[in-house]
Every structure is written in structure tokens, then in C-alpha cells.
């Protein structure tokens, strides 16, 4: 073996000596150079990977908190010393955030990273890849992803810099929101002819023509907010691209909840674009699935999904300290009574995405929790604070704090931990015991959104197409969600109610609240701020520190 190795080293040494005085015209095939990579369709796909990784990285955390916890949909209160975190949750809930809020800064970083990575990848492929359909499609996909990131950024921050040239050294100042809107629109329209129109495993998680049309539909529906000019007919036309394709369908009641299970994926008939997650290989989807479980339940469980409040497979008793203590249920994120009021149809399958009221095991027996008198109620004044207290787990609505009408702190006892209805739409997968990563793929656009967007656009004054009516479209979704009678008439409040039920926990509620004029409503734990300038977030201090040409948004 040593002789063989020595021979190889000698040969290499000779080659190195020879090459030092001779110019060898030998193509390099073992290194990634512009001349060798990316060349093939597989290499183009590989080179594009970082863009999708960046999209996945903070969608279920940072992006969710900005879009949901700034509304009445979700709130993460303080529990004594827990979850203060620099008041970043409190500020989102009460609309008191500043340019230094951690979530505001993280959201800017998240989206600019996607855009910057897309710029770099587009530049590499433009220079290196041979002309052909594979290159054209790949560039169109990347530009669609960049346009979607700009749409998300425009929605959150309003006036943002348009920086699309990789390697440019000149700092870009903010572009007006309407200009960003026009840029995104033009990029998507230019990409559509080169994007694929197939669905299924081959294009799952990749941008297709229908993702581009979905983004356009969402932009047009909100155009009055973004630009001051309504574009409802354009919204309808974009929605019709999905409707006329025949590729999508509304999931029936029997499979509605399964769309969000850890087993979801390309087979979902409603998914137009989803972010794939794999607990074994990727991180990022931990908040939506696990952080909505009550931290102090005293158990570890799987939710059965068959009946509200039913559980199966108890694995751990936290109170005894046994089991996987490093992976206990966490996260007291809950909804407000104002948002839960939208779930006012007892026959609606969408009610089952909530844990509410008394909780029971699958066999019907009550879930009992053992604590102490003082552990159950921190205000206990009886003579036996350490005596055992056993009670049935009962999740109660969030109204106000027992610590005071203006308090964001619920306390630190069993009563506090059991306050608030929890959303379990993205069902937690507890088969992975070592971390919080989840297998639930996250849908950004579903077909039901297309149907309800078209209905709203028609109701707001757009011209009906394909024989549709706003009422008929809404009822076509409802018929797959509830056994209650169809609606006989529509109002904007009914449309808002349907969207709240259909897309809870899917990062669209802030968008809806603003469009329906409800973002300034009072709700939850003393959210009373009515400043309309908060419909967009401030440019973070961290961004201005690195780019002094940026101009802060009005009000901040």
C-alpha cells in the first residue's frame, strides 16, 4: 500500500513540476468554474437551491410573527419572566413597535437575503449556462422567487430599495411602493411564458405559471392599498388562469385538516405553491406546529384530529420529570376572543383546528393535571399552598390579564398557562423526539384563496367572468367546509369572516385586516393603538446603519 501511495505522490509531483514550466491546455472538470458549472439542467437546479433554502429559513418564524402577531389572530403573552424577549411580542400585538423591534429587523434581513441570493444566482446562470430552454426556465423561476420576495417586502415595509444587480456597489435608496408594485408586476409577466404549467411532484415547491398568477391576483386585490388604484378586473383575470386550468380543486370536508398534517405534500389538490419541510434534513418549521401547544399541559401527546379536544398516545409526564424533558410541549401562543368569534358555525370543519374548553383523552376520559394549590393559582391564600390540587385540563378564552386590565403578563400558574385557545392547524408531529423540526409543508397559495379572492374582487366591483357570482364562489368553498345551509347574501363582513376561518395561521390575516379596514381595531391584551401609518413597518435601524441612503417610513 505504501509503495502504491508513493508512486501516486511521485506522479503528482512530476505533473506539478512539469506544469510549472509548461502551459497545459487541459479543461478543468473537477472544480466549479464559470466554464464548467452550471451547465446541465440538473446543475441549474442545484445552483438555484440556496434561494429556496433562504425562503424556507424564516417563513414559519419571523414572517409568521410579523404577519400574524401584529393582528388579532395570534398573541404570545408574557408569563412572568417567560417570553419577554425584549418586548418584541408585546410591541407587535399592541402596535407599538419601533425601528429597533427584533422581528422588524429579522423580517427585513430574511427578505433581503432571498433577494440577494437570487441576484447572485441569476448573475451566475446568465454568465455560465448555455442558452436553451433549461436556462430560460431556470431564470424565470429565480426571477419569480425574487419578485415574490419583493412582493412580501413591499407588503410589509412599503417603500423598499429595488436592488437587482449582483455586484453593484452603489447603495440604493427606497423606491415608492407603487414603483415596487410595478416592478413586481412586470417581472412576473415577463417570467410567465417561460415558467412550467405542470403540477405534481416534478414542480412541487418550485414556481410555476400559477404561482406567478397567484402573486399577481393577490397584488391586484390589494392594489388600492398598495398604489391607491383598484384593479379588481385584473385580479379576476389572474384568478381565472388557475380556475380555467382545471389543475386544482377544493379539498372536501373529509380532507380539509389533512392539508396541514405532517403527511401533506404534492398530493394536495389545493396547493398552488408550498414550502417543503423535512424534519430529518431541514429546520425552520417549528413554530407553527409546536409552539401553539400549551406549555404546562403536563403531558406530551398527539392530537387525533377526529373530534375537537381529543388526544392519543401520551408519551411523557412532565410533572414527574420523566420522558423527553428537552422536547416538552412549548409555546403559549394563542388567539384572541375577537378572532375566535369568526368561528361561529358549529357545523364547520375549520373549528377543529382549535383546542378549546375541557380536554379529553381519545377514550373519552378527562385529561387530569396534578399540581399544588399555589401552582394552580398564584393568588391562592388558603392554609395549604403546597397541598396537591388535581383538575381537568380546561383551555379558557383570552379576555384580559388577572394582573390588571393593562397587563400583558398572564401570570405563572396553571390558570395562566391554560388561558387562550390554541391553534393546531399544522398538526405537531411528535415522532421526531430530538428537536422541534416538523414535516408539515407550508402552503403560501391555495386554490380556495383563488376562489375567495375572485369572489371579493367581483363583490367590490369587478366584472364577473366564467358565469361566476361572488355569492356562488363563496358558497363553493363553504360547501366543502360546513354542513350548514349556503349563504343567501354577501357582505364585506361575511367575506372577512370566511377568509378568517379559511386561512387562519397561514400568514394572510394582516393583509386581510388592512384591506378590510380592521387593522386599527381594539382587541386582545389592550391593543388600542389606531395609528394608520402602522399599516407598514418601519425600515429597521440595522438596515439604515448599513445603507444611509434609506429614508424612514412616515411616522417612525
UniProtKB/TrEMBL annotation:
Keywords: Cell outer membrane, Membrane, Signal. Residues 269-556 form the RagB/SusD domain. The keyword Membrane applies. It comes from the Bacteria. One of its GO terms (cellular component) is cell outer membrane. It is found in: Cell outer membrane. Its main location: membrane. InterPro entries: SusD-like_N, SusD_RagB_dom, TPR-like_helical_dom_sf. SUPFAM superfamilies: TPR-like (SSF48452). Residues 89-221 form the SusD-like N-terminal domain. Belongs to the SusD family. This is Starch-binding associating with outer membrane.
Amino acid at each position: 500500500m505504501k509503495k502504491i501511495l508513493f508512486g501516486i505522490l511521485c506522479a503528482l509531483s512530476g505533473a506539478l513540476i512539469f506544469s510549472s514550466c509548461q502551459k497545459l491546455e487541459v479543461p478543468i472538470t473537477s472544480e466549479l468554474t464559470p466554464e464548467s458549472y452550471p451547465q446541465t439542467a440538473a446543475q441549474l437546479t442545484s445552483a438555484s437551491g440556496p434561494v429556496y433554502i433562504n425562503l424556507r429559513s424564516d417563513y414559519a418564524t419571523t414572517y409568521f410573527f410579523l404577519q400574524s402577531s401584529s393582528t388579532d389572530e395570534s398573541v404570545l403573552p408574557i408569563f412572568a419572566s417567560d417570553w419577554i424577549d425584549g418586548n418584541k411580542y408585546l410591541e407587535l400585538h399592541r402596535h407599538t413597535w419601533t425601528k429597533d423591534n427584533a422581528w422588524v429587523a429579522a423580517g427585513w434581513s430574511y427578505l433581503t437575503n432571498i433577494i440577494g441570493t437570487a441576484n447572485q444566482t441569476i448573475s451566475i446562470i446568465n454568465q455560465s449556462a448555455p442558452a436553451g430552454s433549461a436556462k430560460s426556465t431556470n431564470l424565470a423561476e429565480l426571477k419569480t422567487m425574487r419578485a415574490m420576495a419583493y412582493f412580501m417586502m413591499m407588503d410589509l415595509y412599503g417603500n423598499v430599495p429595488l436592488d437587482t444587480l449582483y455586484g453593484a456597489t452603489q447603495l440604493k435608496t427606497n423606491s415608492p411602493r407603487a414603483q415596487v408594485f410595478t416592478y413586481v408586476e412586470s417581472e412576473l409577466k415577463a417570467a410567465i411564458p417561460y415558467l412550467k404549467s405542470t403540477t405534481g411532484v416534478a414542480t412541487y415547491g418550485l414556481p410555476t405559471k400559477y404561482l406567478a398568477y397567484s402573486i399577481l391576483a393577490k397584488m391586484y386585490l390589494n392594489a388600492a392599498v398598495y398604489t391607491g388604484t383598484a384593479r379588481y378586473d385584473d385580479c379576476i383575470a389572474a384568478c381565472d388562469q388557475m380556475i380555467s386550468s382545471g389543475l386544482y380543486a377544493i379539498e372536501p370536508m373529509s380532507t380539509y385538516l389533512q392539508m396541514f398534517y405532517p403527511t401533506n405534500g404534492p398530493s394536495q389538490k389545493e396547493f398552488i405553491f408550498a414550502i417543503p419541510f423535512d424534519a430529518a434534513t431541514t429546520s425552520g418549521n417549528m413554530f407553527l406546529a409546536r409552539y401553539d401547544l400549551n406549555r404546562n399541559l403536563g403531558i406530551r401527546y398527539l392530537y387525533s384530529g377526529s373530534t375537537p379536544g381529543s388526544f392519543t398516545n401520551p408519551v411523557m409526564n412532565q410533572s414527574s420529570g420523566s420522558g423527553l424533558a428537552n422536547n416538552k410541549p412549548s409555546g403559549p401562543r394563542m388567539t384572541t376572543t375577537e378572532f375566535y368569534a369568526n368561528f361561529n358555525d358549529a357545523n364547520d370543519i375549520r373549528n377543529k383546528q382549535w383546542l378549546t374548553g375541557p380536554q379529553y383523552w381519545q377514550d373519552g376520559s378527562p385529561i387530569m393535571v396534578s399540581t399544588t394549590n399555589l401552582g394552580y393559582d398564584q393568588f391562592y391564600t388558603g392554609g395549604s399552598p403546597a397541598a396537591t390540587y388535581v383538575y381537568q385540563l380546561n383551555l379558557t378564552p383570552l379576555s384580559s390579564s388577572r394582573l390588571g386590565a393593562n397587563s400583558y403578563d398572564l401570570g405563572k400558574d396553571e390558570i395562566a398557562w391554560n388561558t387562550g385557545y390554541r391553534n393546531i392547524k399544522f398538526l405537531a408531529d411528535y415522532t421526531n423526539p430530538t428537536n422541534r423540526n416538523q414535516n408539515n409543508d407550508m402552503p403560501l397559495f391555495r386554490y380556495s384563496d383563488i376562489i375567495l379572492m375572485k369572489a371579493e374582487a367581483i363583490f367590490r366591483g369587478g366584472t364577473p367572468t366564467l358565469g361566476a357570482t361572488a355569492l356562488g364562489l363563496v358558497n363553493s368553498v363553504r360547501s366543502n367546509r360546513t354542513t350548514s345551509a349556503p349563504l343567501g347574501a354577501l357582505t364585506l363582513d361575511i367575506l372577512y369572516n370566511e377568509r378568517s376561518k379559511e386561512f387562519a395561521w397561514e400568514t394572510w390575516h394582516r393583509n386581510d385586516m388592512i384591506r378590510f379596514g380592521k387593522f386599527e381595531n381594539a382587541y386582545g391584551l389592550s391593543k388600542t393603538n389606531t395609528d394608520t401609518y402602522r399599516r407598514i413597518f418601519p425600515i429597521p435601524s440595522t438596515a439604515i446603519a448599513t445603507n444611509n441612503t434609506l429614508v424612514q417610513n412616515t411616522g417612525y
